[in-house]
Design brief:
The chain is of the alpha+beta class. The protein contains three helices and eight strands, in the order H-H-E-E-E-E-H-E-E-E-E. The chain folds into two domains: about 60 residues; about 60 residues, Nuclear Transport Factor 2, Chain: A, CATH 3.10.450.360. A hairpin with a 2-residue loop joins strand 2 and strand 3. It is elongated.
Length: about 160
């Protein structure tokens, strides 16, 4: 076989392999949960509690084995994540707050627990009437989350 024919056969083999493999496809990133409309009872409860808030995303998920609806919203710069039953009962509310909105006992405890730390995101979390404060801090290049009850007692985040 002449060198030209060898090259021609090799080219044919490579083209056949490429055709059999199909078109190249880039890997798709993992899909985010689809944003869907909340049930009417949830929407009504949300709009009554936060009439000027804007819904950014609604997610239908499971919480402790039961269906729930999570609403991510913003209200005059306050980010708020709410967890409702499909019937519209509020189970949990997480909202960002400024540091000056922390109770005095929590501010004092924060200074003691993380002296000199840079304070990041602060959330007030209300789980069916039980309020906690979750605070992201960075000290000596290490970030961590600490949490307090309203009296300033350190708790698990």
């Amino acid at each position: 076989m002449t060198p030209f024919r060898k090259h021609l056969v090799m080219l044919f083999v490579l083209l056949s392999i490429a055709a059999a493999a199909g078109p190249a496809r880039a890997a798709k990133p993992a899909a985010k949960p689809a944003a869907t409309a909340p049930p009417a009872a949830v929407l009504k409860a949300f709009q009554q509690a936060y009439p000027k808030a804007v819904i950014k995303r609604t997610i239908h998920e499971q919480h402790e084995g039961k269906p729930v609806v999570e609403i991510e919203s913003v209200d005059h710069g306050i980010l708020r994540d709410l967890l409702y039953t499909p019937e519209g009962k509020l189970l949990e509310c997480e909202e960002t707050i400024p540091a000056d909105s922390l109770p005095a006992a929590v501010r004092t405890a924060l200074k003691s627990e993380a002296p000199g730390a840079k304070v990041g995101r602060i959330e007030r979390i209300d789980r069916e009437g039980v309020v906690t404060y979750s605070i992201n801090v960075t000290a000596k290049g290490k970030a961590r989350e600490i949490a307090f009850d309203p009296s300033g007692k350190l708790i698990e985040p």
